[in-house]
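Structure (tokenized):
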């Protein structure tokens, strides 16, 4: 029985290694959510709120005098406080409350004893990974433990999350479609985060968008622009865009569609070398320069597995990568091919994930989650989204070149080249739109000819 349990844990670990390749029913795997560890912790946690400045209600008998005294302390802070959480995750839960000045806030509260439990979780993960290594020497999973040790302490510090929220809000302030809730610092601690309450539907909820007349294609484009800016231009990336952390709504004042970005505990700060290599790689993938695809994949640690690496990044087959990922949409046949072949490449995927820079792991996870949203909305990456990515790459590479030259003439030359390249992309996008309109006109003419209106 123990042997079977160990084998089950081993195969669970191998499945988690396949970040960047999606499997059955378009469900994406998350290498940071290691098996039953987080699930078990989430199930075991109580729904009762715990503050740094309050004794945990968990140990106080419900309805007792002590319980009522502690509840009254919460009412000293809030005019009203909803006991039922809006959402619960492995580390924390969120409650809606109203301050005495009338402002509605969201209160994110860390689960009791989660910090003490997290070290045990990591130890258990390390033991399982070492066991897998003994059973299957060809699979390498220590990167799972390394990433957990590095990221979990950051996620447990809610003040760090607040700082991240303010940083990304300032960084992307030019996007009028983005809303990042304001932080109330006066009532926030390492374990409790108070922020502006913002309502909306989950980004993968097509029914919500249809009811509220929100264009799913517009939301998908906005999401692509936002993440391209984070990754290629700023190198500061929100790494947990699962649907519960990305809401959509119509702005109460303007009525325009808006994306609300939540949960800023996990960000990846890309080094300049990594970011520039990644820019070059995506430019090469978009413009089908296979020589440079190989070069920059290898610079990012892919070695001879660069074709597999390109497929993981794009979620496309190698044939599609060679033909051009912006040339044709994903077909059902290609989808099936990727899912059927993924299991055959688990040893290579494991090797690859163990050799790419650690920054790449969270980028792969982010890519997967974004593709999951696109799949749910039926808006898989289009030529337009690839062109937006290319714009960000051009701007980032030009900025790097200008920063590293002292010559005014050279900076001017780089600026002109940047402007020309961006103009070329705008022209290409215009041509695509015109072609699309012409095609639409032809279809309309054909329908009118086949089904003429009655006299």
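Design, position by position:
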């Amino acid at each position: 029985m123990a042997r079977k349990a160990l084998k089950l844990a081993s195969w669970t670990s191998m499945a988690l290694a396949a970040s960047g390749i999606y499997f059955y029913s378009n469900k994406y795997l998350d290498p940071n959510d290691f098996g039953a560890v987080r699930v078990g912790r989430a199930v075991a946690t109580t729904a009762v709120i715990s503050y740094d400045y309050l004794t945990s209600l968990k140990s106080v008998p419900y309805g007792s005098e002590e319980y009522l005294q502690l509840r009254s302390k919460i009412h000293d802070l809030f005019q009203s406080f909803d006991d039922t959480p809006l959402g619960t995750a492995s580390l924390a839960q969120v409650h809606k409350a109203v301050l005495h000045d009338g402002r509605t806030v969201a209160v994110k509260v860390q689960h009791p004893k989660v910090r003490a439990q997290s070290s045990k979780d990591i130890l258990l993960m390390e033991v399982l990974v070492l066991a897998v290594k003994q059973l299957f020497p060809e699979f390498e999973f220590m990167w799972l433990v390394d990433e957990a040790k590095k990221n979990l302490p950051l996620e447990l510090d809610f003040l760090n999350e607040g700082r991240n929220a303010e940083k990304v809000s300032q960084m992307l302030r030019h996007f009028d479609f983005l809303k990042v809730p304001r932080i109330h610092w006066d009532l926030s601690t390492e374990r409790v985060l108070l922020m502006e309450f913002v309502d909306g539907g989950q980004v993968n909820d097509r029914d919500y968008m249809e009811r509220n007349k929100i264009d799913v294609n517009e939301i998908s484009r906005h999401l692509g622009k936002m993440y391209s800016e984070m990754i290629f231009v700023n190198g500061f990336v929100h790494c947990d865009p699962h649907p519960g952390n990305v809401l959509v709504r119509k702005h109460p004042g303007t009525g325009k569609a808006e994306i609300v970005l939540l949960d800023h505990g996990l960000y990846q700060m890309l080094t300049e070398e990594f970011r520039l290599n990644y820019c070059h790689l995506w430019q090469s993938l978009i413009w089908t320069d296979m020589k440079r695809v190989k070069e920059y994949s290898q610079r990012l640690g892919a070695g001879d597995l660069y074709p597999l690496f390109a497929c993981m990044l794009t979620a496309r087959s190698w044939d599609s990568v060679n033909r051009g990922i912006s040339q044709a949409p994903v077909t059902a046949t290609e989808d099936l091919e990727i899912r059927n072949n993924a299991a055959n490449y688990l040893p290579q995927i494991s090797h690859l994930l163990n050799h790419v820079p650690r920054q790449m792991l969270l980028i792969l996870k982010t890519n997967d989650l974004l593709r999951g949203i696109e799949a749910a909305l039926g808006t898989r990456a289009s030529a337009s989204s690839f062109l937006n990515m290319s714009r960000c790459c051009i701007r980032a590479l030009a900025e790097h070149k200008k920063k590293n030259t002292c010559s005014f003439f050279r900076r001017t030359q780089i600026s002109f080249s940047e402007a020309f390249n961006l103009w070329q992309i705008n022209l290409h996008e215009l041509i695509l739109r015109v072609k699309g309109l012409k095609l639409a006109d032809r279809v309309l003419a054909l329908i009118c000819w086949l089904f003429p209106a009655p006299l």
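Reviewer-requested clarification: The longest strand covers residues 92-99. The first helix runs from residue 2 to 16.
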